[in-house]
Design a protein that fits this description.
378 residues, alpha/beta, Rossmann fold, Phenylalanyl-tRNA Synthetase, Chain B, domain 1, 2 domains, three-stranded antiparallel β-sheet
């Protein structure tokens, strides 16, 4: 295997040389014997900031591939007492050995096991699940392996089922009814969280989002794990419900049950999806801490993008409602000329942009006020 050295953040690692695995002039990371995706640098950059605040004693990267994620945590976030890197691919673990040594890390434990097997053998304070595709096969085992008040980080790249394009796949993987709706970019994340809550409940545990975001073609989510059957029951009863959107006028809201419900605005039957999580997507105190310290990471290649994302999330996080996609709403209302988003925000007064969509706005003001601003500003 021919290797190429790359720099990411403050570390230098060896990865399979993409030139050796190109097909008809194209390269996909999955074609190489060990997976390394430079397009996930933004994901890893933000995760480095999160881990620097958490300072876990034990870090477990269950699907390590080249080891880049765990190595960056140790070098850039904080030197944990234990760094555990695992991959079931023996070629990957051999490469991890090289990359750990290349970055001067002496105390890393490297395993060559199926991730689920390892997760039922050890416990950790911070577990990272960054799979190629859906995190569903690893949810139960990762929650099981997390100590009380520990953190699990999930990446999900299977947006087709989560956003409602592949309805049968969503039903099969996430046990949720789904359709493609105007705000599906956010609803997909809520379906994922809902699935994690239900899985955790089987272990008499529950989870609460610490920080989450959508970017490019994936969701990234950090959850705190808490123990106790009562907490699990309370979270399910309080925060797992359904979501309805009117296909005619675009009115949307959370609903208690999956049954035939008529839109209170125009009388059309709602399209209902769920179950999904209806609570906050971020811990506000933790988000503030992220914003307070992210300037310490101005060496990151994606620093400007991180700054922009955090600024938007800080503003939208205070609203409880799902964002409205103004372009989709205007289409339903037969409004041909969409007003500038900034003008709509000014009209509403108490509202913000959403990082989920360029034409997304988030506000707790009523549907009628939103419609008034969209129509009157044409």
């Amino acid at each position: 295997m021919k290797l190429k050295e790359v720099t990411e953040g403050k570390v230098r690692i060896f990865v399979p040389d993409p030139k050796e695995y190109m097909i008809e002039g194209k390269f996909d990371p999955s074609w190489a014997p060990v997976f390394y995706n430079p397009k996930m640098t933004f994901n890893r950059d933000l995760s480095v900031i999160v881990v620097s605040l958490l300072k876990p004693k034990i870090i477990l990267d269950a699907l390590s591939a080249t080891g880049i994620r765990g190595i960056r945590y140790y070098v850039e976030s904080w030197k944990s007492e234990q760094l555990i890197l695992n991959d079931k691919n023996s070629t990957a673990t051999s490469l991890i050995q090289i990359n750990v040594k290349n970055n001067g890390i002496e105390n890393a434990k490297i395993y060559n096991k199926d991730a689920n097997v390892l997760l039922y053998e050890i416990k950790s304070e911070y577990i990272d699940i960054d799979p190629f595709g859906s995190p569903v096969p690893f949810i139960l085992s990762s929650i099981n392996a997390t100590i009380r008040n520990g953190i699990v980080a999930f990446t999900a790249t299977d947006l087709s089922p989560l956003e409602g394009s592949s309805r049968t796949s969503c039903r099969r993987k996430y046990d949720a009814i789904n359709y493609k709706l105007s705000s599906s970019k956010e609803l997909g994340l809520r379906i994922l969280i809902g699935k994690i809550i239900r899985e955790a409940a089987m272990l008499e545990k529950t989870v609460y989002p610490l920080f989450s975001f959508y970017a490019d073609y994936y969701y990234r989510l950090f959850v705190r794990v808490e123990s106790g059957a009562r907490k699990a029951d309370e979270n399910i009863n309080k925060n797992l419900k359904y979501f309805g959107e009117c296909p005619r006028c675009g009115f949307q809201t959370f609903v208690d049950e999956n049954c035939k419900i008529k839109c209170p605005i125009c009388g059309e039957n709602f399209i209902i999806i769920g179950p999904l999580y209806i609570g906050p997507l971020h811990n506000m105190e933790f988000l503030k801490r992220m914003i307070d310290i992210y300037n310490n990471f101005n060496y990151l290649s994606s620093f400007n993008r991180i700054q922009k994302l955090l600024n938007v999330i800080e503003k939208e996080a205070k609203y409880k409602s799902v964002f409205y996609n103004i372009s989709k709403l205007a289409s339903k209302l037969k409004v041909s000329a969409i007003p500038p988003i900034d003008s709509i925000l000014e009209c509403l007064g108490d509202a913000s942009k959403s990082h989920f969509a360029p034409t997304g706005i988030r506000t707790d003001k009523g549907y009628e006020e939103i419609i008034r601003c969209v129509k009157n500003l044409r």
